[in-house]
């Protein structure tokens, strides 16, 4: 068993088709297991959360980004560094609330949904809800409680895919955190 | 020049890992008490006997290394311990639970080899 401990910054190229198909197989299986869309959405969010709490460490290790000073900086880092690093896309940041505690991530294209069409029987399925869980889990590990939800979805006929991010509160260190 | 010991803490102050190499004398208190002392409010300092190097990530992971006085700034070393060892071998292994002492033997031995390979680590203390 030899495991590379020092891959460092070299990127592992993987077929994006394999990734999309794997994600699709996951969602399909969840739909079979849970029978209703709401439960599938919840599971996707939970799985995303479990990914996010670990992914943040990989992100910090590779990007060398320091602690963000405010939510605007956080938004920039999410869109320009994190999304680029993990999904190869750079969503745009728009629609800041006057208080600066909410913004939107607009994705022209979403690698998770290549080849996907949502059937009528799953109209309330939030196909890419894993992403919302990832964002929530990752940000919780850097002391930010946020809500992430899809407000527009190209899969449902909208022109773009939009995730709305809302800052809830700062998390103090002595709250126990773990996997759900 | 040498490395005395290394601590890895998480954001809740749980000691994830501890290793020692050349510890000239025990502090005279139990290991648990010593863990508590280590994490309370230190940044970087040196005494007449040793130097403590500190590195913390935005997620609250803290790497603490004690060396003798001959060792200069080693932020890159502590970052390597975080990124190439802890993140690669523990965080990315779904079978390694977070928030508790690391059980992974691979992590322990890779960390040990890395420390021993450092230019400022010598097999004989002092």
TrEMBL record, chain A:
Q: Which GO BP terms, alphabetically?
A: endoplasmic reticulum to Golgi vesicle-mediated transport
**InterPro entries to which the protein is assigned, alphabetical:** Bet3 (IPR016721), NO_sig/Golgi_transp_ligand-bd (IPR024096), TRAPP_component (IPR007194)
Query: Which subcellular locations apply to this protein?
Result: Endoplasmic reticulum; Golgi apparatus, cis-Golgi network
User: What is the superkingdom listed in this entry's lineage?
Assistant: Eukaryota
Which keywords describe this protein according to UniProt?
Endoplasmic reticulum, ER-Golgi transport, Golgi apparatus, Lipoprotein, Palmitate, Transport
SUPFAM superfamilies reported for this sequence: Ligand-binding domain in the NO signalling and Golgi transport (SSF111126)
Summary of the function given for this chain in its UniProt record:
May play a role in vesicular transport from endoplasmic reticulum to Golgi.
What's the protein called, per UniProt?
Answer: Trafficking protein particle complex subunit
Q: Please name the source species.
A: Myotis lucifugus
Gene field: TRAPPC3
């Amino acid at each position: 068993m030899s495991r590379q401990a020092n891959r460092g910054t070299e990127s592992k190229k993987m077929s994006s088709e394999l990734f999309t198909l794997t994600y699709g197989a996951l969602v399909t299986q969840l739909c079979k297991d849970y029978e209703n869309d709401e439960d599938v959405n919840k599971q996707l969010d939970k799985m995303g959360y479990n990914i996010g709490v670990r992914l943040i460490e990989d992100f910090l290790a590779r990007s060398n980004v320091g602690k963000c000073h405010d939510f605007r900086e956080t938004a920039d880092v999410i869109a320009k560094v994190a999304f680029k690093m993990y999904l190869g896309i750079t969503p745009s940041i728009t629609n800041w609330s006057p208080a600066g505690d909410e913004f939107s991530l607009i994705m022209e294209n979403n690698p998770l949904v290549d080849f996907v069409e949502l059937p009528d029987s799953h109209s309330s399925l939030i196909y890419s809800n894993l992403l919302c869980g990832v964002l929530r889990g990752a940000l919780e590990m850097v002391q930010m409680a946020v809500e992430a939800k899809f407000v527009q979805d190209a899969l449902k006929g909208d022109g773009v895919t939009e995730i709305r991010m809302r800052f809830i509160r700062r998390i103090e260190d002595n709250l126990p955190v773990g996997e759900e | 020049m040498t490395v005395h010991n290394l601590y890895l803490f998480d954001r809740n102050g749980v000691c994830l890992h501890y290793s020692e190499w050349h510890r000239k004398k025990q502090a005279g208190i139990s290991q648990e008490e010593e863990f508590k002392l280590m994490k309370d409010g230190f940044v970087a300092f040196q005494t007449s006997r040793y130097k403590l190097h500190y590195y913390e990530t935005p997620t609250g992971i803290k790497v603490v290394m004690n060396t003798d006085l001959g060792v200069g700034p080693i932020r890159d070393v502590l970052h390597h311990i975080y990124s190439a060892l802890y993140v690669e071998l523990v965080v990315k292994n779904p079978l390694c639970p977070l928030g508790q002492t690391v059980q992974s033997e691979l992590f322990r031995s890779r960390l040990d080899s890395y420390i021993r390979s450092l230019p400022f680590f010598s097999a004989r203390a002092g």
